[in-house]
Amino acid sequence: MTAGAGVRPALRRLSGAPLGLLALIALFTILRPTVFPDPGNLSNLLEHIAVLTIVACAQTVVMAVADFDLSVGATASFSGVIAAQLLVAGWPTVAAIAAAMAAGVVIGVVNGWLVAYLKLSAFVATLASMTALAGGSLLLTDGSTIFGLPDDFLLLGQSRPLGIPTVVLIAITVGAVTWFLLSRTAQGRRWHAVGGNAEAATYAGIDVGRTRLLAFVVSGAGAALAGLLLSSRLASAHPTAGDPLMLTSIAAVFIGLTAAQAARPSVAGTILGVVVLGVLDNGLNLLDVNPYVQQILTGLIIVVSVGLSRRRGERP
Amino acid sequence: MRMRHLSIAVALVLAASGCGSGTAQPPGAPAISVVTPYLANAATKDVVDKFTAIGERRGWQVTVTDTAGDFSMLNDKIQSAASRRPSAIVLAMGDPTQLTLGLKAAGDNKVPVFAIDAAQADGIAANVTSDNADLGRKSAAALLEAIGGSGNVAMFGHDPHPGVRARAAAARAEFDKAGVTVVTVKHVPVPGPVEGARKLTTDLLAVTPDLKGIWAAWDEPALGATQAIRQAGRMGIAVVGVDGQDFALAEIQKAGPFYATVKQDWDAVALKVADLITDQLAGKAPTQREYALPGTTIARTT
């Protein structure tokens, strides 16, 4: 066996997102050697991607059952608005947070019921709930930004115990819990089984409807948590604050797919996808690249990484 | 079963129509259709509400339609409104260059279109706006005052909005005239301008150690910039915004990085549009294509 023969398979395994991430890190380190690898910048980067990580992990669960959730951004906006309105109305912080989380769970149940039992496509069901939630957020806020949130609520998104942002700690916890659920539990195996082949899963005795519904509940809860963190971080709630999270969370899962040999959604792959998007955004900002060009580059990277993954999958 | 579904659907539609934004007025009242792509924006909502209230007091039937940033749908809504031949259509803060189809339909139906904070264009009888150049100049002057008239500044804008583009151009001219260096001009994403500006500012602070000020074209990105500056502990950097939103005034009162905002006089804008429509209903067309009203600077020192 030659050294080259060992390196080539290793490089092949590194294709897609991991290779892309390494290339981006190398590129930005060379072009901005004093700023990009600076611990302060890396800490900022982690804080920037924390909220997206939570939504993307939740989206991974839905995509594991071969569905997707277009309403995660609107759910995040809605939960932030609910919490802010209740806090401004004088509710205790814990109660407001619980109510916002409950709203996320209810949204997940409705989405799951529409998809799993009413047999609507995930696209139609979550598009409908996204639209309705966007209207609900606007109605609740009268289109305005809610501010004046209490200090104890702001701790959730702005405190830094031991210098580590709380949002990062929460994102790590959510990532770990989602990874454990998907990879180490019977429920996780059921999610993957339904995503792999729903019919076969039914024959294997899995309650496909319940399994899909639970995936949407996880998604709703994750999105609600992200919305709470966003509102706390921004010290305000805006009816569209969480909207950009929808497309980027789906993009992160797709980029993450390029890292997995099995080509099925995984938490590790998704977090890699989130990091790729975060590094790209951060690096291009540091280089002061035209923002319109940034959007083009982000789109290209998604296409190239997913395309490479496809080619690798087709290889005998 | 089908009849039952049909009745539920009819009941829902009737219930929804009862919750509509149209105002109850006697039959024969002048109908005014307000259309906008930006009702989620606090300033747009503010001016549309003010105009609606004035219209109701004058006995008009005012309906408000939002397309949530969708300009294609906005064309459809204007076409559909024009076919009903209201007394006037009011376009609130949409770029009229993207609305030629809708404006042509309004013209074909002889329905006058008045614009709030949009732009002059064929098919627009008159545009009433804050003087965006004035807003740009005043906000730039406030930032220059905050930074002592020299140093590096960054600008946060959003070019697809013609008003924002105009105020950014005027602010830039003021900075150039004062010899202040504009180190970068950033595009703030919409939706999500607060979080977007916060991220942009965090990255900007990492590469610009000598930054002295951030000019934001409206208050939401100014708020995001303020939060990033506060978190980074770079309290010497001043931020100004435009709009005079309540949250901006609250930030200015804290005497932190948010130094000033320039309040747009939405009461005066809404009243002027209503007056122009009243004249139009009396058969008197506007004498100008554009009416630009000045803003008021609200700074820490005022």
From TrEMBL, chain A:
GO molecular function, one term: transmembrane transporter activity
Membrane topology: Multi-pass membrane protein
Subcellular location: Cell membrane
Signal peptide: none
Transmembrane segments: 15-33, 45-66, 86-110, 122-141, 161-182, 213-232, 292-309
Alphabetical UniProt keywords: Cell inner membrane, Cell membrane, Membrane, Transmembrane, Transmembrane helix, Transport
This protein's GO CC annotations: plasma membrane
Pfam families cross-referenced by the UniProt entry: BPD_transp_2
Main location: membrane
The protein's name in its UniProt record: ABC transporter permease
TrEMBL record, chain B:
Signal sequence interval, chain numbering: 1-24
InterPro entries reported for this sequence: Peripla_BP_I, SBP_2_dom
Cited Pfam families: Peripla_BP_4
Keywords tagged on the record: Signal
GO annotation, cellular component aspect: cell envelope
Molecular function per GO: carbohydrate binding
Domain of life: Bacteria
Compartments where found: Cell envelope
Periplasmic binding protein domain location: 32-284
Family the entry assigns: Belongs to the bacterial solute-binding protein 2 family.
Protein name as it appears in the record: Sugar ABC transporter substrate-binding protein
Organism: Herbidospora galbida
